[in-house]
Specification:
- With about 350 residues, the chain is mostly helical.
- The protein has one domain: Rhopdopsin 7-helix transmembrane proteins (Up-down Bundle).
- The strands form 2 sheets. Strands 1-2 form a two-stranded antiparallel sheet. Strands 3-4 form a two-stranded antiparallel sheet.
- Strand 3 and strand 4 form a beta hairpin.
- Helix 1 runs antiparallel to helix 2, helix 2 runs antiparallel to helix 4 and helix 2 packs antiparallel against helix 10.
- The longest helix is centred in the first third of the chain and has 37 residues.
């Protein structure tokens, strides 16, 4: 079926724009809340903050490119756009923006996994059920496959411009299934990564000598990556629409929508656990630490609060048998550890 025969009338442009900027706005608020917490409340940002910030930038760029595509006709029926003056050129530019935006989408939902890994290693530390090497291996595998999918999208057509401009003479592309199958593998590994990064800390929390409500609270916070895994699977079902030839400007919208949701949800999922100290300050209406103010200890000495992502919480190896009274809340709220109560260091991996 040629695009000229596609149905006209109806538009998903408003839906696409709303999803893009509402979810991106949520991600912006969450990320800046995280950065504020680690920088001004805890006074010690970590590498996970950098990863989250870069992923947010990628998400903003991806949303901006999608908005530019919407302005050119993305979300309308292809035949309707093609019939407008300059419509064909707009279609070419829209497809080009989709291809150029793909790497930013990949970065937006891949880098948060690195941030979550950093956080888990600090919070969970040593576990007897899973090794740090396994967690790192899963995340690295996801990053490598995501990078491969970016390469595929740019080399699947020769010349590359043929991906968005089918009028180029002599252009040719691989079978669309190459990209589809590559994307399926990436989606499967990404969903598995999200699952692992959710299950590992949840199982480890139950080994700590802390109150049940604290276990549940932190398990829910870090378990938010499970939601991202669900969205990844849903998005994967629409991947073939990326190379749709029937009504490409209209049919691809559902894929773009789920891609936007996925990338922003995983960013929020990676940011929310670190917001816990900020929530506690709000509940207690306590003073916030500013760049020029300090939290003072009982002996009136200056005290730096430590970020959750930087605490050596691997020392919180299950110490129930050793009679450890250290609570996760004390660590997570970054209260100073008193040397006389410090548990013995855990055996490192």
């Amino acid at each position: 079926m040629d695009t000229s025969e596609a149905v006209t009338g109806g538009s998903k442009q408003l839906e696409l724009s709303l999803v893009a900027w509402i979810f991106t706005s949520f991600a912006i608020v969450t990320v800046f809340g995280k950065i504020y917490t680690t920088t001004f409340v805890l006074r010690r940002p970590g590498w996970d903050d950098l990863m989250i910030f870069l992923s947010l930038l990628a998400s903003i760029v991806a949303s901006g490119l999608i908005q530019a595509s919407v302005d050119l006709g993305l979300g309308k029926h292809t035949a309707e756009v093609k019939a407008q003056p300059g419509g064909s050129a707009g279609m070419v530019m829209t497809k080009k923006l989709q291809v150029l935006g793909y790497p930013f989408n990949i970065l937006a939902y891949s880098l948060p996994n690195v941030a979550i890994l950093i956080l888990i290693e600090r919070i969970v530390g040593y576990t007897e059920t899973v090794s740090r090497a396994f967690l790192r291996g899963v995340v690295v595998a996801q990053l490598i496959l995501a990078f491969v999918s970016v390469i595929v999208i740019f080399v699947q057509c020769q010349p590359t411009a043929y991906s968005w401009d089918q009028t180029i003479e002599g252009g040719k592309c691989w079978d669309p299934n190459v990209f589809n199958y590559t994307s399926y593998v990436v989606s499967a590994v990404t969903a598995f990564t999200d699952l692992v990064l959710a299950v590992v800390p949840i199982s480890a929390f139950w080994r700590l000598q802390i109150k049940l409500h604290q276990k549940i609270e932190m398990a829910v916070m870090l378990g938010l990556t499970l939601i991202s895994a669900i969205f990844t699977v849903v998005k994967a079902t629409y991947l073939p629409l990326f190379n749709d030839r029937i009504d490409p400007l209209y049919n691809v919208v559902i894929l773009v929508v789920w891609g936007l949701i996925e990338q922003n949800v995983v960013i929020m999922a990676a940011s929310i656990p670190t917001l816990r100290p900020l929530f506690r300050h709000i509940r207690k209406k306590g003073p916030f630490t500013t760049p020029t103010s300090y939290i003072r200890s009982g002996n009136n000495t200056k005290e730096r609060r430590t970020s959750v992502s930087e605490l050596p919480l691997e020392q919180m190896k299950v110490n129930v048998a050793r009679g450890s009274r250290r609570s996760f809340e004390m660590h997570n709220s970054s209260e100073e550890l008193h040397e006389e109560e410090r548990p013995q260091a855990a055996t490192r991996w």
